[in-house]
Specification:
CATH superfamily of the domain at 26-103: Nucleic acid-binding proteins
Strand content: 15-25%
Structural class: alpha+beta
Order of helices and strands: HEEEEEHH
Number of strands: 5
Largest sheet: 5 strands, mixed, barrel
Length: about 160
Amino acid sequence: MPRNKTGGKGGRKGKNAPKTNKQMIYPEKGEMYAHVTGISGNGRFITMGTDGIERTSIIRGKMRKKVWVNRLDVVLITPWEFEDKKASIIHKYMPEESRKLLTKNEIPISFTLEDTNIYNGEDPFAISDSDDENICSLDEKSDDSDSDVDSDVDIDDI
């Protein structure tokens, strides 16, 4: 039996380190960039291609359980010839690669790299005076409706 030459945890260190000399992969004929808009589960994703068609994309077998695709990732897809609404994901771009593609105008600006449209730039947890006024007005309305309910319900009827 061969002896372990790397030895212990030092041999495992750097296993998942990113490769620095990785070349950019550009689409060939029949391939296009896409943006992951949703996750369906079981290796299936909803993607929006550069042609504007929303497709159900399936991660290719070689990437399965090795490359994790998330929502808002930029991927390279190959649309199926026999079914227009389906495609295969053949490559996932890392965030720094997708920024390079954005600066080179390879992908449209509509492919947002971060989900910034959720709260429209406002802090969702900020408390303002208008919130207190809304809560007070709701309490007054609920007090009025509680008195109406009490007068309609008789304990003997229960």
